[in-house]
Amino acid sequence: MPRIHVMVVVGARPQFVKCAPLIKEILVRRREMDLSIVHSGQHYDSEMSEVFFRELMIPKPSLNLHAGSGSHAAQTATIMKRLEAPMLKLEPDVVLVPGDTNTTLAASLTAAKIGIPVAHLEAGMRSGDTTMPEEINRRLTDHCSAILLAPTKTAVRNLKKEGLGKATRLTGDTMVETLRAVMPVVQRRERDILAGLGLQADNYALVTLHRPSNVDNLSRLRKIQLALHKAAKRLRVVFPVHPRTRSRLRGLKSGATSTEGGVTYMSPQGYIETMSLLRNASCLVTDSGGMQKESFLLHVPCITLRSTTEWPETLTGKANQLLIQPEMIHAKILTTAFDHTLKNNIRRLRNPFGDGHSSERIANILEETF
Ligand code: UD1
């Protein structure tokens, strides 16, 4: 059998999480496959990048393009310009791009224009909200990909509606595998992680925010922050702060961790720390796509500060509740965190994200196709 060269292009935090099981599947079980890992450099702080490679045991990228931050156009264009020559030189049989970041779009456009087939991991997600940069990235990436690796049945339906059914394969979600793989480590370390922050299990809300719609509008961000502080009068709030958000939040002391009025602000956390904090939280408040799924899988009720979600399955049984009015946030946190009936019901929900064998399926699809 001829060897297959798979180039995986990643660049931002959630992409490391999505690709980790597939990278391991290829390296450990597929001797007939060659793998190159390219990092765009979109995320470059060690707490946004290196820590994930270390904790998820992903080998260091063979190439880092150091594209860094910038406007959407500048960042996407820089990645494209720096990626073209290595793609031409390495001539992979397929370029695999996960998720919906600027790195995803840049890599898929670059490959498609050279004539290298693109495989899109997590294809078919749609929030319907084109003001989100990710929605544009997803749609364009799907439409220039040769293989669409859809995590859910909803994703398959979305792709069929857009005439992309022929290229679509239902694989399940690789994040299920990533989460399962780290669970023993999480269980070993969570007690110390909570104790280090003076937290008790099921007695705090975890918060993550980084969407431009929440954090770039300073008056909205201020209202959200006030709501968190109001909730913190009755329930501890733990808030690992994304760098985009940190630069905009009021009154944050510099340094890694500070607690103000019951809200603990900390630097962005690694995957194991985040999953430990999530698994033991009374509820999650977020605008992240991946965290909506992870909270569903860990049976932790989620409040998503957005008007839409690309993960509608998580809304089943109010496991995830969409909310945009800042003035309702504090009451929603308290009612959700103390709602034991809701928590019991969430525990019984069926997992729509697959059986944890997606990376094996994806590697098979790549083998059959190339
Ligand atoms: C990006 C993705 C988003 C994903 C998120 C995960 C796009 C359009 N957005 O958003 O889909 O959910 O990553 O975190 O691709 N910064 C640092 N250090 C870093 C990285 C970023 O300080 O290592 C700061 C810079 O000021 C930068 C800002 O954060 O301008 C935003 O980073 P960027 O990668 O542009 O977007 P994210 O908000 O992280």
Description of the molecule:
Helix 9 packs parallel to helix 13. The relative contact order is 0.13. The chain has 15 helices and 14 strands. The longest helix is centred in the middle third of the chain and has 23 residues, at about 175-195. Strand 5, helix 5 (about 135-145) and strand 6 (about 145-150) form a beta-alpha-beta unit. The chain folds into two domains: about 5-175 and about 355-370, 3-Layer(aba) Sandwich (Rossmann fold); about 185-345, Rossmann fold (3-Layer(aba) Sandwich), CATH 3.40.50. Helices cover about 45% and strands about 15% of the residues. The N and C termini lie close together (about 10 Å). The protein is an alpha/beta fold. Strands 3-2-1-4-5-6-7 form a seven-stranded parallel β-sheet, sandwiched between helices. A seven-stranded mixed β-sheet has the order 10-11-9-8-12-13-14, with helices on both faces. The site of uridine-diphosphate-N-acetylglucosamine has 18 residues, from helix 1, helix 5 and helix 10.
